[in-house]
Structure formats: C-alpha cells, structure tokens
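Appendix B. Chain record.
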Amino acid sequence: MTHSTFSGTGVAIITPFDPQGKPDHAAIRHLVGYLAENGVDVIVVLGTTGESVTLFEDEQKAVTQTVVEANAGRCTIMVGIGGNHTAALEQKIARTDFAGIDGILSVSPYYNKPVQEGIVRHYEVLSSVAPIPLMLYNVPGRTGSNMSIDTTLRIAHDCKNVVGIKEASGNMEQIMTIMRDRPKEFLMISGDDALTLPILASGGDGAISVVANAFPQLYSAMVRFAMEGQTERALPIHTALLEFTRLMFADGSPGGIKAALKVLGMCNEYVRLPLVNVRPDIYKAIEHEVYKLNQFKAHLD
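Structure tokens predicted for this chain:
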C-alpha cells in the first residue's frame, strides 16, 4: 500500500443514532454508499465527528464493521484510534480486527498536555505496534496542545509506519514549513475545511472533511481541481461552501453536520451528551445554506 492511498478527499464520517440513542446501522450504510458514489476517496470511522468518545467499545466495533461492509472495498478506510493513555492504546491496537481497514488516524494526546518529547515517544510506541499505516492528527483546539513543526518532522523522518498528518492547527506558516521539510512521501492532509483550498494550493495532498458528509460531490470536485492545479475551478466551490462550513461549527461539531444531513433526508440529528443539537436559529440557517448549495450544485451540473 502506498502513501497516496490516503490522499484526495477524505470524510470523517458521522455516527447516526436512532430515536433510542443507539447507532443507526441502516443510516450508516446509506451514508457510506452516498459518499462512495460521489467522489470520496477515504472514509474515516470513529473520529471526533463520529462521536467515538461516547461510543462503547462494542458499539465502536459494530459501527466499524458496518462501514467496512457497506464500503465493499470502494474507498480507503481509516479508523480513529487515539487518546492520552499510550499503554491502553497499545492494547486496543492489539485487540482490533483490522480486516478491511487500511490505516489508523491517531489524534495527539489530549487533556494531560504532554511536552513535545512525550508526544514523540507516544507516536513511536503506536507506530511500532500498529500493523497498518498510521496518520498523525494535530488539532490543538481539541487537544489543548500543538504538535510543533520539529515534533511532526521528527516523527515523519523516524517512524517509517507514519504516512502523514491531518493538520488542523489553523497555522498556515506551520503547515507550509512542514511541507517544505517533510520526507518526500509524507502526506499533508487538511483537517480544517475552511483552509483546504489554501493548503492544497500550497502543496497539500488532500483533506479529511466534515463538510463532505453532506456535499461529497462538491467537496471532492474542489479537492480534485485544486490537486490538478485548476485553482480557478476550485475557488468558486470553496467560496460557495464557506458559510456552510462556518455553520457546521457554530454550535459545535458534529451537531452542525448532523443537522445538515437531516435537512438532506440522510439521517436523524441525534447526538450523545454532553453534545446537544444546534439551536433553532442555526438549524434554519443551515437549511438555507443547504438549499443554496443544492442550487449551486445544480448550476455546476
């Protein structure tokens, strides 16, 4: 498997819930098909957007199995395995069935705020035990600490099983410096929907998106155009998606994207506490943007 397996348009898939609060496997299968048929290259299951931290381990296994079965080999599949207890993650990797899974997305340790040396050692351990490729995930807004440029590059050069990083620091100088000094095949993947086009225009290799849950065809077209150097074709899509992207995070994620998927008739909007649904005014604004984007999409078609 090459590093490019993980490039292009990725989606951090939601976990739909039924009215009883249990994972809705029929909706999961429907969403996977929708993504696979509309230009998505990579599906990430059990990420933050999938509310993995509020899924019990048996639910995590069942959701992953449903995604793998529904995908039927069409998209690359990554599974989120990350946290702040390195030894526990070693054990989780050891007992995970990776059949049908191509890679691991592992968020930088959160809450306990390790120093940079601790982050390096954490990933050294995970890389050494992971039986499939591993991708770093830097999201300081959630973890409380930033993976520095030096830390990322040290891991990139020393851990051969690490194929790239999902970068959501929002710091373009940091992102571009990593791209300048990274190993040749180390992937820079956008983890920030609003910055995907600038990152790709600077030499990035793809995105793992929240927005693409709802509009995979538009988003994958933008990514494809940008990666082909056709910025003039990517820019109108990026611009059209900007307000929708803002609304996805106005009341927290994945509340926003679940509201959009409800408007589109894909699934319910239920989330698990401590998350709550978006406020009525945000829901109405999302409805309006979904309508506008459907009109925009029809015009492009």
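Further analysis of this model is presented in Appendix C.
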